[in-house]
Design brief:
By secondary structure, this protein is α/β, with parallel strands linked by helices. The chain has helices at residues 21-32, 44-56, 71-84, 107-135, 156-175, 194-197, 203-212, 221-232, 250-253, and strands spanning 12-16, 36-41, 60-65, 89-92, 138-143, 181-188, 243-246.
Length: 255
């Protein structure tokens, strides 16, 4: 009988920023596909509540509260994964944005975006590399944004981090291939998460976004999670160094 290539049973998957939005949807999807999901967030209450929820649904889940943007937080993450005993899949999902014109940024705001989106990703990937190598079938998926490919009017530092992460994805796909680690990325367009709810209170802007999106609606977090799950499955075993835009056709059309 052919082995099922479309499940994650027996895999251990760590998802950063996984108590809200896209990260939460990724964890929920992977848990449903049989993975032991490792929930990571700065807020212990959110971690505990989500882990409890997943366990109540019969899934396998563990969690840790740590700030992956700091070296100390990443050390705590390493200790946590070591206590679990294995890691097969890493999803770098943590990120933030401050929407301003270029000349309006304070240096502290710029540094915060760089530290959260870029440096933490680089640091977590480096820290988790030994575990992914030990897996023998390691997978790394970076959550980017269409902002790394096209102009979105504001948020130049955010766009810079996402473009840089695309190049990191390419580099690691080649550098880590010998260690049997595949590295890919997804780039969502606007997705219905707490990060954009306030933005869409501006109905004119929401209408314009929908008008510029060929599919004609905003994505659901689960639609991004589905693609991340696919890139983590044995079914995608010959895909590496790629980025799939989950954007309803926006980057073809753009503003």
């Amino acid at each position: 009988m052919k082995q099922n290539q479309w499940i994650l049973t027996g895999k251990t998957a760590l998802i950063t920023g996984s108590t809200k939005g896209i990260g939460r949807a990724i964890a929920q999807e992977m848990a449903g596909l049989g993975a032991h999901v490792l929930i990571v967030s700065r807020h212990i209450e959110e971690v505990n509540q989500f882990v409890t929820h997943l366990l109540s649904e019969g899934y396998h889940a563990s969690g840790v509260s740590t700030d992956v943007s700091s070296p100390e937080g990443r050390e705590k993450l390493v200790d946590f994964v070591r206590s679990i005993g294995k890691l097969d899949i890493l999803v770098n999902n943590v990120g933030t944005n401050i929407r301003k014109k270029m000349v309006d940024y304070e240096e502290s705001e710029y540094n915060h975006i760089m530290q959260t989106n870029l440096h933490s990703n680089f640091g977590v990937s480096t820290a988790m590399y030994p575990f992914l190598k030990q897996s023998g079938q390691g997978v790394l998926v970076n959550v980017l944004s269409v902002a790394g490919f096209t102009h979105l009017r504001t948020g130049a530092p955010y766009a810079m981090t996402k473009a840089a992460l695309m190049q990191l994805t390419r580099n690691l796909a080649v550098e880590w291939a010998k260690d049997h680690i595949r590295v890919n990325a997804v780039a969502p367009w606007y997705t219905m998460t707490p990060l954009v709810e306030k933005l869409f209170e501006n109905k004119d802007y929401l209408d314009e976004v929908i008008q510029k999106t060929p599919i004609g609606r905003i994505a659901e977090p689960s639609e991004v999670a589905n693609v991340v799950a696919f890139l983590s499955m044995p079914a995608s075993s010959y895909i590496t160094g790629q980025c799939i835009t989950v954007d309803g056709g926006f980057t073809i059309n753009s503003f």
